[in-house]
Write a structure and sequence with these properties.
The structure holds two protein chains of two kinds. By secondary structure, chain A is of the alpha/beta class. Chain A has seven helices and eleven strands. Chain A has a single domain, classed as Rossmann fold. The radius of gyration of chain A is 21 Å and the shape is globular. Chain B is about 50% helix and about 15% strand. A five-stranded antiparallel beta sheet of chain B has the order 2-3-8-7-6, with helices on one face. Chain B has a four-stranded mixed beta sheet with strand order 1-4-5-9, covered by helices on one side. In chain B, strand 6 and strand 7 form a beta hairpin. The longest helix of chain B is centred in the middle third of the chain and has 37 residues. Classes of the chains: A alpha/beta, B alpha+beta. Chains A and B meet through helix 2 and helix 5 of A and helix 1 and helix 2 of B. The structure holds flavin-adenine dinucleotide (2 copies).
């Protein structure tokens, strides 16, 4: 069983992020790391391959400046190889442009039975790439997986809902997006980290994928960011002194917010 | 050339080193920080964390790949130690005596001895303890009285060793004992636990800090050690073990840097949150002066430690440098823990905040692996020897 995992490499959330005032997008010039959301997909993929008794995990990522740091982390966890798409022409890509690139890259992985992604990335979080990739590859898409099992050529998914979960079955190959609850990601062992250094990372350009530069990047983006503003500072909360009726005020307050 | 001074391991690829240290940082933030205070209050051995540390590969960091280890360099080692100490200093004690035993074997073991014990240590199957001190031989190492009497192809060990960190849970103990030729080093193989073939844990030492890991007194009564377990030359045990302590001192220095950094980070965060006289205390100049001094000392301690490790890696003498790093970094940890407590005001004195733990853990580093008084003697002796153009 061969699993492809889409992994996004993002600016370290521990360092305060910065927006570029001219492009109005997140600055991505520093070191990028593995999006923690994607570590769940990587772990799930590794466990599925182990359970199947054979096969391998291939990573697919699109990132600027030939960035491989985040890929190395996922390779250290146990993935076998990676495809990285990096090209100046990709600057300004929107979610659909990203999906086009990822779909083309996934097509190059022979015998992929299952494609995993996170539900949404930690920095862009449009939560649209997985479905777009499925659409472009003409594959079934299952979202919000909190549990995955593969049975022959069928994938069985517990799909998280507000009330509980749905049991969903679908034929392979398929694109499944996982939630953070799906499995507990392992820490890469030191040995794994050392081995990751020599695992193959195939770095491709837009042209290598057979895509036209006009379909991606700023040129292909169907979205435009018109303006950016500072998030408003958090306002001071309301203090309710308990004179014996505090609970009524709190209930009224929550009722007003329509959370009750 | 003295093998204890020989290059330690080839330099580790910088990306690999960074990724390993980053992984330990993440591990500490997620798995250690949330539970450290609780475990330490109960003085409970962190079995689960140690099992995870083993899976990561922490017990074989510096052991060569040929012997089942990872063959990583000292800079990787001290980076890992700093991160562990940042979360909970006790964890570094579990790794330190273990690494000392491995280092002793790497420097002075025969190939057969290395084959026999290094892979076991590297995998963390057995844990190592280093047993030099005695009730009447701490700084005064030459006063060791524990005896190992030759009897055929065995030695019979009798005596009492003090302050054996990891002594109870260890399976391999590097022991300094007196033979006919002088003080010799042995590897004692035992089953983890309170008693084994004439060896018994006679006392658990109650401690100010450094909790969760046991420090014990061990009594040896007619315990037999095969002669094949003697390490290096008979009678040369002391210089052999003291040579290994150079790495031990670099370890202590990086632990101290970790604790100092934890104290500083806590202080910096609290200073920005706590408001008095209408502004965060970080805006008061008195607090700013403290923060500036703390950060400067921390940086100096880290650089001294790094320098000692780099010299050791390059195969250069580093008795003076390791001593300086240990001395300065441990005093820095003491000072920063105290300053962090001052900055926290009353909160710093409570068990709701980790600062009081840093304050109790820091003093170990001014005492262990040679007190700071002894450290100054080591530094001065090394300086004088160098001035006279001697190698010692
Ligand atoms: C204005 C703008 C400029 C941009 N500039 C660049 C640029 O210079 N270089 C560049 O590489 N990208 C660039 N991007 C792409 C961007 O960073 C996102 O990859 C893309 O918009 C996907 O959106 P999202 O993060 O909201 O995905 P979501 O739909 O929230 O992501 C869901 C999941 O899809 C997968 N996924 C998403 N993106 C990627 C990816 N890039 N690689 C692998 N898996 C992925 C992950 O599993 C992720 O968790 C730019 C985007 C915009 C809008
Ligand atoms: C928690 C803990 C764990 C330990 N773990 C281990 C371990 O795993 N293995 C091990 O072998 N040992 C271990 N030790 C022992 C430690 O190395 C000794 O405590 C230390 O070397 C000091 O020896 P001492 O306690 O006998 O003090 P002493 O030697 O009695 O020193 C008392 C004071 O006199 C000073 N002093 C002594 N001699 C001189 C001198 N010549 N000139 C100037 N000043 C001097 C000292 O600096 C100190 O201030 C541990 C100690 C502690 C507290």
């Amino acid at each position: 069983m061969n699993v492809v995992v889409c992994v996004k490499q993002i600016p370290d959330p521990a360092d305060p992020g910065a927006l570029d005032p001219t492009t109005k997008t997140l600055k991505r010039d520093g070191k990028l790391i593995l999006d923690e959301s994607d570590s769940y997909g990587v772990e799930m993929a590794l466990q599925l391959v182990t359970a199947a008794g054979g096969g391998e995990v291939t990573l697919v990522s699109m990132a600027p400046n030939g960035e491989v740091s985040g890929l190395r982390t996922a390779l250290a966890m146990g993935a076998a190889k990676a495809i990285l798409v990096s090209d100046d022409a990709l600057a300004g890509s929107d979610a659909l442009g990203t999906a086009k690139v990822l779909a083309k890259a996934i097509e190059r992985v022979e015998g992929a039975d299952l494609i995993l992604t996170a539900t949404e990335s930690s920095d862009g979080y449009t939560g649209t790439v997985p479905e777009q990739v499925a659409g472009l590859l003409d594959l079934p898409s299952v979202t919000f997986a909190k549990h995955i099992e593969v049975d022959g050529s069928t994938v069985k998914v517990q799909r998280q809902t507000e009330a509980g979960y749905d049991d969903v079955e679908c034929p392979l190959p398929a694109v499944v997006s996982v939630t953070a609850g799906v499995v507990e990601p392992r820490y890469p062992s030191f040995k794994g980290i050392m081995a990751a250094k020599s695992k193959p990372v195939d770095t491709l350009t837009v042209a290598d994928l057979g895509l036209d530069a006009s379909q991606v990047g700023w040129a292909g983006a169907g979205q435009e960011i018109v303006s950016i503003e500072e998030a408003p500072a958090r306002e001071a909360g309301e203090v309710i002194e308990d004179d014996g009726t505090a609970f009524e005020k709190i209930v009224a307050y929550l009722d007003n917010l329509k959370v009750l | 050339m003295d093998t204890a001074h020989s290059p330690y391991a080839p330099p580790t690829d910088a990306d690999v080193r960074e990724e390993i240290i980053g992984t330990v940082r993440r591990f500490v933030a997620n798995e250690v920080a949330p539970v450290a205070a609780g475990l330490e209050r109960e003085d409970r051995f962190p079995a689960e964390i140690v099992a995870q540390m083993r899976e990561l590969g922490l017990f074989g960091i510096t052991i060569p790949e040929a012997y089942g280890g990872l063959g990583l360099d000292l800079l990787t080692y001290i980076g890992v130690i700093e991160e562990l100490a940042y979360g909970w200093m006790s964890l570094t004690g579990i790794i330190n005596t273990h690494t000392m035993v491995a280092t002793l074997l790497m420097a002075h073991g025969t190939d057969e001895q290395k084959q026999r014990w290094l892979p076991v240590l590297a995998a963390g199957e057995q844990r190592g303890a280093l047993s030099l001190s005695e009730p009447d031989a701490g700084s005064d190492t030459r006063n060791i009285s524990c005896k190992a009497q030759r009897d055929g192809d065995e030695y019979v060990v009798n005596g009492t060793k003090a302050w054996v960190t990891n002594g109870e849970r260890a399976g391999l103990v590097a022991l300094a004992a007196r033979t006919e030729e002088g003080i010799s080093a042995f590897i004692v193989e035992k089953e983890p636990g309170p008693a084994f073939e004439g060896i018994s844990v006679s006392k658990h030492v109650g401690k100010l800090g450094y909790k969760g890991v046991e420090t014990v007194e061990m009594a040896y009564v007619d315990h037999r050690v095969p002669a094949a377990n003697l390490i290096g030359e008979p009678g040369r045990g002391l210089p052999q073990i003291l040579g290994v302590l150079e790495v031990g001192r670099i370890n202590i220095a990086s632990r101290a840097v970790g604790v100092a950094r934890a104290a500083f980070d806590a202080a910096l965060a609290y200073a920005q949150e706590r408001v008095t006289m209408g502004k965060p205390i970080a805006e008061h100049q008195a607090i700013q002066l403290k923060l500036a001094d703390m950060a400067t000392r921390l940086e100096a301690a880290r650089l001294l430690t790094r320098n000692a490790a780099e010299r050791k890696m390059a195969g250069l003498r580093c008795d003076v440098e390791a001593g300086m790093a240990k001395l300065f970094a441990s005093e820095t940890a003491m000072e920063l823990a105290t300053e962090a407590m001052r900055i926290h005001g009353g909160m710093g004195y409570t068990t709701d905040m980790p600062v009081e733990r840093y304050y109790r853990d820091a003093p170990l580093m001014i005492i262990g692996e040679g007190t700071n008084e002894i450290q100054r003697l080591v530094i001065a002796r090394g300086l004088l020897a160098r001035a006279r153009g001697q190698a010692s």
